[in-house]
Amino acid sequence: MQLTASTAxxxxxxxxxxxxxxxxxxxxxxxxxxxxxxxxKQICHQFMASLTDSVETLAMMNLPENDFMNLIxxxxxxxxxxxxxxxxxxWGGELSVDNLFMCKTFPHSHNMDxxxxxxxxxSTVWLPAPVQKIYLPAHTLGGGxxxxxxxxxxxxxxxxxIAANRDM
Length: 168
Known about the structure:
This protein has 168 residues and is of the alpha+beta class.
């Protein structure tokens, strides 16, 4: 179904992401390298390590300390988080850190898939285009489950020190 800018914004809003910027894109078939997955894994590790400049946003996700540290060290991505392509490889997107962003798998990544798939066969597709490396809807930033604020500040401080040591 071909969407206009206003219908695309309405649909993404109905999926609970009314603050998610969208960009119009004309998909073109592209050839994908046979070793794309090996390259993708390497780029994902680079992307995770680059998140040290997004420590405040990561802190809003209320990740357990081990998950937080493993993420910014580029070791592993926590459960219920997804690394997504801004422009899919099959449509000419690049295997690069700049073509990636992270969001919660459920509901956000799941709803982005629904949104994109609903436009199947369209000459122009509206793609999610978060401004930052991590997409968190504004309505989820107001607070979390509570807990130990001291531990959260400690984790944020440690992450800032790691970033400083990496000269980031």
